[in-house]
Structures are given as structure tokens and as C-alpha cells.
Design brief:
It comes from Acinetobacter cumulans. This protein is mainly alpha-helical. Helix content is 81%, strand content 0%.
Amino acid sequence: MELIFAAALCSVAVSIILKICRDRGLVPMQMIAWNYAMASVLTYLWFKPDLVHVSVEHTPWWLITVLGILLPAIFFCLSKSLQSAGILKTEIAQRLSVVLSLLAAYFIFHEAFNQLKILGIIMGVCAVFCILDSHKSKQLNHGAKPMAFISLLAVWVGYALIDVLLKYTTGLGLQFSVTLNLMFIFAFVLSMLYIIVKYKSMGTWQNIGAGLLLGVLNFANIALYVKAHMLLKDSPAVVFAGMNVLVVMLGVLSGLFIFKERVKPIVALGLALGLSSVLCLAYAM
């Protein structure tokens, strides 16, 4: 359980640091680029993927490239969502992306569903709509640009899309560690090209330092989560539920006590539905 807690702590720490750094004027895209540089190195050292014998002919490079584009793009949306919607709602939306992943598993991969899984998906979708509606109605009343609504929706859909593409890639025979390393390398290269073209530099020392720290936490989150699944291989539901519930709860606590965010009744309802959804889906596993 310590590994699951540490993984959840790293996940929320990424959001906290990203939000604080952005509020202090650092450039999110530069931090995101260097985050993937560090994550690439740590993935290679920890998982030891066999990149030397990767088949140039049989590797789905187009898919790796798409993932390499999506990773920094969705990370940037995460940054926008943290700024405009807050960490509490962003963490709920990010964690409930599993609902869309499960729907894709049903329609694309023909995974069997039971009643608990259906109930969990319904509650998860309702939870996300509660979170989205809290911003949609406010922005319509004030005539503001729907940045929070769009960024939350992008986080929800984007993380689910990445999860589905990852499952599809590993289904083609490419190992998890190889896929992860290639994704991070492509994400770093493409992000670096973007910031060089846009900012005419590779980033300031502050952005590079913050990005490398994000990379350590981002990688630690993945490595600890994978390790927890390995140690509790007979109880995947415990890992799944523990990780998602802890991330949401830590996100709520950080939102309330660090960033002084307010919880409206509709958001509280979304939170309750979200946690119930995660527990239902875990029990259904």
C-alpha cells in the first residue's frame, strides 16, 4: 500500500508543481519538454528496454509519433486546466478518463461488461458532467471564454485516448517499456522543436530545472504504479482503486488547503459520484 500512496503522491505533486510554476510566470511548454527528457533517461535506466533490437520495419512508428504528439499536448491541456479550473476538478477529470477507456475497451477490444462495470461507467460520466457543468453555466452567465470547460474536457478525453492507444500499441507486440521509452523520446524531440521555433531557445534555467523535477515525479508515478501491480498481481482492483481514490482525495485536499479552492454543491456531487465510480469499477475487476 505504501507504493500506491507514493505513486499517488507523485501524481498530485506533478499537478501542484505545474500549477505553482505557471502562477509564478514559468513557461509550461518548456517545462513539459524537459520533463520528457528526464522521463526518457529514467525509463531507460529503470526498465532497461531493449531499444537496440527494435525492429525498424515492424514497429508502428506512426502510432509512436501520434503518442509523442499527444503526450505534451495533453500535458499542456492539464496545465491550462489547473490554471483555469483548479487542481480539484482537474484531478477528478483526469482520473475519470478511465470511464472512456473502458467504453473503448467494450466497443473496440470487445471486452465483457458486467452490471457493476456499467454502473461505474454511468456514475463516472455523470461525475464528469457535474464538473463540466459547474463551469459551463458560470461562463455562459458571464459571457467568458469557456477555457475551463474546454481544458477539463480535453484532459478527460485526452488521457483516455492515450490509454487506448497504449493498449493498442502493446497489443501489436511492442513491449511496455519499449513503447514508454520511445513515446517519451518522441515527445521530448517534438516538444523541443516546438519551443525552439516559438521561443528561439531551449528554455531558461528555471524552466529546465522545473521540467527536470516534473520528469522525476512523472516517472516515479509510473514506476511505483507498475511496481505495485507487480507486487499485488493477484489484486489489480486494489491497486486500481487505491491509486485513483488516493489521487482524487489528495487532489481535493491540495485544492482546499494549498490553493484555497471552493467546492460548490454540484462539484461535491461530482466528487462523490467519481469516487463511487472508481470503487464500482475496481470491484467489477
